[in-house]
Write a structure and sequence with these properties.
Blueprint lengths: L2 H20 L4 H4 L10 H16 L8 H12 L4 H18 L9 E3 L5 E3 H23 L8 H12 L1 H8 L7 E7 L4 E7 L5 E4 L8 E6 H8 L10 E5 L1 H9 L6
Parallel strand pairs: 3-6
Antiparallel strand pairs: 1-2, 3-4, 4-5, 6-7
Length: 257
């Protein structure tokens, strides 16, 4: 299987999961607040529609990123849940048909915020976004699930790729510092990042480096912290070594806007 086929499968699975949840929601649940600031469950569904319509339209340059994000939500506020769900179903069916023949993975593309990427990179980001919002919906309405899904594994990869930059640039860990991160649960990870003498972070073999700080946490906590959901107090983390450094890393894990 090509990587892009993995992303296609994961995208359709997480969108289908959100649709299935939506079909069982009460009117009150549609109005429930989520951990995504200022958005209700209905707003999350509107956002999913906007992102996938943008992809289906050939992802034109949207202009200001935040205006683009907000537009899909504002346009659908006040619409009945049945209409929102019907539109997402239409978009899902259209995307299922078009992605039966995926685009050239290495064809150039741009993220909505303007940064260049490839079609494969853009699709991976859509999986990440849709899975994160599936989880926002699930937590808001008390329907847990999907933590070990294909979309969860794509999201894990996105979080992990950011770790060297977080440790070296955002936290500013000194040279020759090594951070070990262990994630347990439905989707796991065990990796180490060291900061070299030029203050760049890079992955290194876990077994070959004694960590300056070692962070161990459950998968859902890692995902939520990486998305800025909840506060540090909401999550239990096992820290060893330099605890102060470990807490600084936890405070900088969020990669979403």
């Amino acid at each position: 299987m090509r990587p892009i086929d993995r992303y296609v499968s994961a995208l359709l699975q997480t969108l289908r999961a959100s649709l299935d949840i939506g079909e069982r929601l009460t009117d009150r649940e549609w109005k429930s607040p989520t951990e995504c600031p200022l958005w209700t469950v209905r707003d999350i569904y509107a956002h999913l529609i906007g992102g996938e319509r943008w992809m289906a339209e050939g992802h034109p340059t949207p202009g200001d990123f935040q205006d683009w994000v907000d537009a899909a939500v504002y346009e659908r506020r006040g619409q009945p849940p049945a209409r929102i769900l019907a539109e997402l179903t239409y978009v899902y069916d259209h995307r299922t048909a078009t992605l039966a023949d995926p685009p050239d993975p290495q064809a150039p593309a741009n993220y909505p915020w303007g940064e260049p990427t490839t079609e494969e990179g853009l699709l991976a980001t859509r999986v990440f976004d849709c899975w994160v919002h599936e989880q926002d919906i699930r937590r808001a309405v008390g329907r847990p699930g999907g933590l070990g899904s294909p979309g969860a594994r794509v999201a894990r990869d996105v979080f992990v790729r950011s770790l060297p930059r977080i440790v070296a640039r955002r936290v500013g860990a000194p040279p020759r510092t090594t951070i070990r991160l262990t994630v347990v649960g439905e989707v796991g990870a065990d990796l180490a990042v060291t900061v070299d003498d030029s203050r760049r972070g890079r992955f290194v073999p876990v077994a070959e480096h004694l960590p300056t700080a070692h962070l161990t946490l459950e998968w859902e906590s890692y995902a939520r912290l990486s998305c800025g959901r909840g506060s540090r107090a909401d999550h239990h983390v096992w820290l060893s070594g330099d605890r102060e450094l470990g807490e600084r890393i936890l405070a900088e894990l969020a990669i979403t806007p």
